[in-house]
Amino acid sequence: MKYRMRKQIISIFIIETLWLMTVPRAWGQSLPPSYDLRDHGRVTAVRKQKEGTCWAHGIMATLESNLLTTGVWAEMKEKELPNLAEYHLDWWNGFNRHNNDDLSPPTGDGLMVHQGGNYRVSSAYLARGEGAIYYPDANNDSETDDNWYHKAPARDDPNYHLYYVRDIEWFTAEPNLSNIDTIKEVIVNKGAIATCYHHGAYIFDYVQYQSAEQEELPNHSVAIIGWDDSKVTPAPLPGAWLAKNSWGTIWGELGYFWISYYDKWCGQEPEMGAVSFQNVEPMVYDQIYYHDYHGWRDTKTDISEAFNAFTAGGNQLLKGVSFYTAQDNVNYTVKIYDRFEGGQLLDELAARSGTIQYTGFHTIDLDTRVILAENDEFYVYLYLSKGGHAFDRTAQIPVLLKGEEEPLTVVKSSAYPGESYYYNGSAWEDLYGFDFADPNWGVWDRTANFCIKALAVSKPIIIKLIERPAEMELSDTAPKVQVEIKPGVENLEPNSVVLWHRYDEGAFTSIAMTSEGNDFYGATLPTVDWGDKGEFYIRAQGNQGGIVNLPENSPSNVFTFFVGETRIIFADNFEEDQGWAAENLGASSGDWQRGVPVNDPLWSYDPHSDSDGSGRCFLTQNETGNTDVDDGAVRLTAPRIDMSFG
């Protein structure tokens, strides 16, 4: 394999880490013949999975890419690139022997931990609000990143950074590729897409192609990060997807490879061929009400109306609902009712209608405030114009790991009377009493619930940080803090928004935040000086006395920034020799060399050019032909860098 060391400026930053990200292109613009999300700073590092966890790695790769694509990660001021917890999903997805809330006790039945899953399994976990989770303790500096692999992490922890996936959409390119541009548009505008293929005899020189006539089922998950319409593959016609694998950088082209547009499964398998996890955002909901613990397992196609009944767990504001659509271009109507009596839904509290373009999971915000009191019964009604209603039931679970001859694992669901109802054309019927045609491997009756969820917040008011000091501020500046405050269970008490701050661990002092219109409030911190450590938090009050701090648990937990400046300690564009040392550690070929890339058109691993266009870079054996590093290793060592800031 040929490696190159791109030209780069090596900078030492006192506090802040910077990421380069380009803005997604507008929908409807012409698509380029080739595209690579890496060129736009929207792909995270290649991981190296343990056992059968490819599905968890493929999914988290797409969520991480979406966070970079939308800019949400940058807004959150996290201290590193996204690195979401694959092994929390692996342990706590709810389908395995470690935990299934629909069983009592919840252990001992279902899938084996670390031994496969799929995208509907992950969708159930994400829709319930169990994840996705970012937590530094889940990660380490290795590609395996396996801190949580060997032992189950805590299911919940107040220190977890929890992210919610608002939308999950399923696509197929279609056998004639009539829908391929839709998938490309989604990659450009939403980030990487999860896919599947059969890894085995159909991959050569890191190019995958399984023809439609070959029968092997998909057994591996990866993330599509780009494409090349002219890429030659074993398929009759050119064109291939660029995919990110989870087998480390030692595999493939530094962890990446190609899959033909005409592969049997990639972009084609209805449930796993092309799945986009979109609009990932920090979790804002305090409680998600649901009866479908295992999510979309089947579809009742002969109905258009259904509802779920819930009981409020506290004084809350109902913010939204979520559900699945089983076809594209579905009109929906959501309604919230206060009563279900005499077979009728009564006292409508809110309604929302619209159209959903693509099949999948969707979150819809309510535009009418619905306040729930503890133990209130409420009812979430959903009309869908076509495709029927998704529901959970006991099911056999296909996973991206099983061999061709192995039987599918049965995962049991549970249901109770009075939870889910459907309209039969003349009256409401309880889904609990529906008489399924049970298969020979299990019982479906009295295990089904519709996939209709309610999303609620318990906070008196909802504070969102909009603008804050950079993690490293320049001296002699006065940083701005801005928040957006929305009503929760209460309305905001006027003149109650306060910014508390201190420098260098002195006493906290307060600044009143003033209204800037449209629910925004702002304040300016005092001028900062070199070496200062700044800490701050925001406090506001609801009109019934409820207090909300941001961040939670402040002042024990606060926002922090430092004051300093960026200094470039070492810079090298490799046009001059600054003392890099190349060593051969037993390799028969592939020595490090500084030069202009030869760009051999007959060797696909050759770099086309250096990264900044000035000419030279370091490469391994800069010659035409196969010049991989073979039979050993080579090492390139940087010159001594003075870190004394003298």
Instruction: Assess the beta-strand content as a share of residues.
Output: 25-35%
Give the fraction of residues assigned to helices: under 10%
| Quantity of strands, as a count | 40
Main structural class: mainly beta
Give the low-pLDDT segments. Answer: 1-23
Distance between the termini: 41 Å
Largest sheet report: 7 strands, mixed
Average pLDDT rating = 91
Which term fits the overall shape? globular
Q: For the CA atoms, what is the radius of gyration?
A: 27 Å
How many helix segments? 5
What can you see in these coordinates?
This protein is mainly beta and 646 residues long. The protein is 8% helix and 34% strand. The chain has 5 helices and 40 strands. Helix 1 crosses helix 3. The chain starts with a strand and ends in a 9-residue tail after the last strand. Mean pLDDT is 91; it is low at 1-23.
Architecture blueprint of SSEs:
Layout: E1 4-5, E2 34-36, H1 54-70, H2 72-76, H3 86-92, H4 119-127, E3 133-134, E4 161-170, H5 180-190, E5 193-197, E6 203-204, E7 207-208, E8 220-228, E9 240-244, E10 256-260, E11 275-282, E12 287-289, E13 298-300, E14 305-311, E15 316-325, E16 330-341, E17 344-356, E18 360-372, E19 377-384, E20 389-392, E21 395-397, E22 409-411, E23 420-423, E24 428-430, E25 449-450, E26 452-457, E27 461-467, E28 472-473, E29 480-487, E30 498-503, E31 509-512, E32 514-517, E33 520-524, E34 533-541, E35 547-550, E36 559-563, E37 581-585, E38 592-595, E39 617-620, E40 633-637
Parallel strand pairs: 7-10, 28-36
Antiparallel strand pairs: 1-39, 2-8, 3-4, 4-11, 4-18, 5-8, 6-7, 8-9, 9-10, 12-26, 13-20, 14-19, 14-23, 15-18, 15-26, 16-17, 16-19, 20-25, 21-22, 23-24, 27-29, 29-33, 30-31, 30-34, 32-33, 34-35, 34-36, 37-40, 38-39
Helix pairs in contact: 1-3
